Amino acid sequence: MKYFSLTDIGKKRENNEDSFFSFTNMYADVQVGVFAVADGMGGYENGQYASKTAVEIVKEYIQTNFSNIDFEQLKDDYIRKISTEAIKNANDYIFEKSKENPMGTTFVMVIEIGEKLYAINVGDSRAYILNKDNFIQITKDNSYVQYLVEQGLINASEARTHSQKNKITRAVGFESDVEIDFYVRELEKLDKVLICSDGLTAMIEDEKIKEVLQYDKNLEDICKSLIELANRNGGIDNITITVIENN
Questions:
Q1: What is the C-alpha to C-alpha distance for residues 94 and 49, in angstroms, rounded to an integer?
Q2: CA 232 to CA 60: how far, in whole Å?
Q3: C-alpha 156: how far from its chain's center?
Q4: CA distance linking residue 167 with residue 155, whole number of Å
């Protein structure tokens, strides 16, 4: 698999409160890729601390637990268990810190193992997959406007401009326990996977993101083009992107 990650402060923020990690390694003679984006909140340096801490805790936990794994363990239940434990560990730590200084972070992670893609999510950072001409949002936003859409009170277009579009209903560090969404999908050769903070999706509609993913073949060019476009459209938030190609 190939991948590229890029982050940008945007046009309006003084700090970049996004964090990410990306790595591939051989575990049990199988190439495994693990990629995550976290979008911190809390103001001043608190959001930056929350997102950075979350990615560090999760990355270390996954690398430690995968290091002694055998092939038979690389199954759906094990991936769910390890990824959930990792995020809960981050939640415990950040929740304790947030008692002094309110803070939290979204967290989206994808794990690629062979022809399987696992997506894990808390908050409104997103994971997408481009399969031929189908561009699909894998994760579901944990947000107030998503709730309104599901209730049929507003449509997806109205959600983009709603006055409470930034209100999320779940985050790492907000509460003593955290509910974590887990998704499993099959991968095909040349599928592209995108994970990002909402600094991208708030500025660019999905159809335009799809066009860039289809038009640009180089993963670095894709990331640069998307960030440039988000900034051109206002750049109201930090923007972090990882694009992975299954080859």
A1: 9
A2: 36
A3: 20
A4: 17
Residues constituting the chain: 247
Q: DSSP for 128-174?
A: EEEETTEEEE-S---BHHHHHHHTTSS-HHHHHH-TTTT-BS--BTS
Max intra-chain CA distance, the chain? 49
169-178: string of b/e by CB count within 10 Å (b at 16+)?
A: ebbbbbeeeb
Answer yes or no: are the C-beta atoms of 137 and 206 closer than 8 Å. Answer: yes
The phi-psi region of residue 130 (left if phi > 0; otherwise alpha if psi is between -120 and 50; otherwise beta) is beta
Give the tens place of pLDDT for each residue, 142-178.
888 878 877 888 877 777 777 777 789 999 999 999 9
* CATH number for domain 2-245, candidates 3.30.470.20, 3.40.30.10, 3.60.40.10, 3.40.190.10: 3.60.40.10
Give me the residues of the chain with pLDDT under 50, please: none
CA distances 102 to 50, 52, 133, 190, 206, Å, are 10, 15, 42, 42, 32
Of residues 106, 89, 107, 62, the one with CA closest to residue 177? 89
